[in-house]
Write a structure and sequence with these properties.
The chain is an alpha+beta fold and 174 residues long. Helices cover 34% and strands 28% of the residues. β5 and β6 form a beta hairpin. α1 packs across α5. 28% of the residues are buried.
């Protein structure tokens, strides 16, 4: 049986990478899934965010989290992996130029995460015609559809190779 992540990666491979010229405002993308567990949460926390509510369920019970909760940065890292491998097939990779991020609900050990993204804005560069900026709003959701992370990011997206020359030649011909 093929995992949802493997199936999404296969679909991504069929689609091919997206260039600025392929993207439109309102386009939506969905990633594969990632199942969380207690060991992942504790391992990430031990290395990168060693706060009691990320390391110990009992310690987390006495906080506003009410139990063990993944670090928001762990959720962000998984979101990035899901987008890179299955959710947002940008040519040349996802290169961030700025972001806003929030975590309206904690990520739990029993959660299965997936990301839904929507293109909000596209701005071709005036000074660098081989690229542009795309603003994407992404929701990292659990298996119940609850939003665990909300991010709005600006990413650098290249134009399709040759598109810049074609645009220049079209302008010169008119």
């Amino acid at each position: 049986m093929t995992s949802p992540l493997a199936a999404a990666a296969a679909l991504l491979a069929q689609r091919g990478p997206l260039y600025l010229d392929d993207i439109a405002v309102g386009d939506r993308y969905a990633s594969g899934e990632h199942a969380m567990d207690e060991a992942q949460i504790k391992d990430f926390a031990a290395q990168f965010d060693p706060q009691p509510f990320h390391l110990d369920d009992a310690a987390g019970r006495s906080t506003l989290f009410g139990g063990l909760a993944a670090s928001g940065w762990h959720t962000a890292a998984i979101t990035m992996r899901l987008q890179v491998t299955t959710g947002l097939p940008i040519a040349g990779g996802i290169i961030g130029a700025g972001a806003e991020i929030s975590w309206p609900r904690p990520t739990r050990a029993s959660d299965v995460l997936h990301v839904v993204s929507e293109v909000l804005d596209i701005q071709p560069s005036k000074s660098k015609p081989d690229r542009g900026m795309v603003t994407v709003r992404s929701e990292t959701r659990n298996q119940h559809g609850e939003v665990l992370q909300l991010s709005t990011v600006r990413i650098v997206v290249p134009r399709r190779p040759g598109a810049t020359a074609e645009a220049s030649n079209a302008g010169a011909a008119s």
